[in-house]
Amino acid sequence: MRTASNTASPQASWAQEARRCGRTALLLPVLAAVAAFAAFSAGPPEGTLLGRLVLECALPVATALACATVVVREPMAELHMTLPTGYPRTVTRRLTLVGEASAVSALLLVAALLATGSSPAPAATLVELLAHTVLLSGTAVWSAVRFGSGAAATGTVAAVVVAKVLLLDQAVPQATVQAPWALLVGGALFLLALRTLADAERFALRLQEV
Q: CA-CA distance, 134 to 152, in Å (whole number)?
């Protein structure tokens, strides 16, 4: 049974979680946005096939890999499960930081493309990036929690990207039709991963009480 209290200030807690995320996880979305901008703006205003593919995939994939890194890099997860702050809540806070870095990167990416006159419809681009990011990040987090491996999460994300590009995009090319389903599936995978962590936490607490 938890008896300790969490006396850290909110600012200190968020700073601690940022350190636990690591610089790489928080910088990956930024670097991906830079790569997407370079790839898309290098071609004509409507973008080349490669440029559009990089714009669609680079930031969501980078965010997903960052989320997987956040989940698997904690070396003392069992200890965290016995602390006053629930481990699923801790993971959620860290993933929120990655999500914020990704959201800012997406906004800056679209703004930069608009400034150069080479952006597609900004609202549609943001919706597509959001949906794709939620889908891949949910996939990465679920896989990392389920298998406890960053390599497994990377492989699962790669498989989903290939399936989307080669199959889903051919059958349902409209991003506005794909977006709701991507958001639903990605969100469900996030919740499933957090529920798995909560179940593991309850099991660890029961072992502690024995």
A: 18
Give the N- to C-terminal CA distance of the chain in Å, as an integer: 11
User: pLDDT tens across 6-48, in order?
Assistant: 445 566 566 677 777 777 888 999 999 999 999 998 878 777 8
Residue 87: closest CA among 145, 156, 143, 136:
145
Specify the residue for token string 């979305």.
29
Cβ contacts of residue 193 below 8 Å, gap of 6+? 71, 138, 141, 142, 144, 145, 146
Non-local CB neighbours of 163 within 8 Å, separated by 6+ positions: none
What is the token pair recorded at 172? 């349902």
In terms of residues, how long is the chain? 210
Alpha carbons within 13 A on the beta-carbon side of 112: 18
| pTM attached to this predicted model | 0.84
What are 122-160's pLDDT values in tens digits? 888 999 999 999 999 999 999 998 888 889 999 999 999
Question: What are the tokens at 4?
Answer: 């300790």
